[in-house]
Design a protein that fits this description.
InterPro entries: DUF6503. This is Heat-shock protein Hsp90. It is globular and about 50 Å long. The protein has a 13-stranded antiparallel sheet with strand order 6-7-8-9-10-11-12-1-2-3-4-5-13. The chain is built from five helices and 13 strands. It is of the alpha+beta class. The chain has a domain of 173 residues: outer membrane lipoprotein receptor (LolB), chain A (Clam).
Amino acid sequence: MKKLISLFVLLLLIGCKQNSSEKRIPVEPNNGIGDGATPPPVLSFSENIEEAHNKVAFMNRPAISFDIKLQFGGKTSLEGKVSMTTNSSKVRLDRADGASVIYDGEQVHISPASATSDRARFNVFTWQYFFAMPFKLTDPGTVWEEEKNRVLDSLQYQTAKLSFGSNIGDSPDDWYVVYKDPETSRLKAAAYIVTFSKDREKAEEDPHAIVYSDYTNVENVALATKWSFHNWNEENGLGEKLGEAVITNIKFFDPQEGYFTAPADSQVIKK
């Protein structure tokens, strides 16, 4: 009888251990994201910003457009309409001078073929990215590090540094220091370098920052309608103001077939 009782207890203990093992959440190499585990602090930082801007609502729409007027040194450097799929897979810039720059998902085209192509590739990629940045912080290839407080305009902000894996976009060597608004968790600013047409070492000699303000709500999505551009350094944050952009006429839309296709009278822009 004692042997039977002992065997019963042994089987009961084994059964309890098996049940406990079945309920345990596995630890995965990706820090457990997606299996119920708490995300690492830096990922929480980026996800909080995306949530504050309502990334889900933004990504549920196929495309968005906005008018942009850029001024540097008191002169207008770009004016036109930017249209983009919300995942940035296709972009169109209709300039005020009548030319259109179109990224069809594979190549950048300018139409008409005789139009001035100076900085066309830079313009079609850069301004749509600054506009959509609050929704791209956890895109594939993003790498986060160095979560800490930094000074911006004499105030302390929670920040983290964003860089990219190899072969991500036109300028994978770019990096950003992202500032989060402590009250709203929205994107407050981003320091950055531009490695387009230059190497990283040279670009890091001249970092800049974009500051987002005058937020508006478009279909429950928070979008900044004013950007200001400044010199920037790690120690003091913002330096001299260099320029600004005004964003107007923001609209989600369903693009018609061929909207992001270059017309016959166009040429490919490779640089």
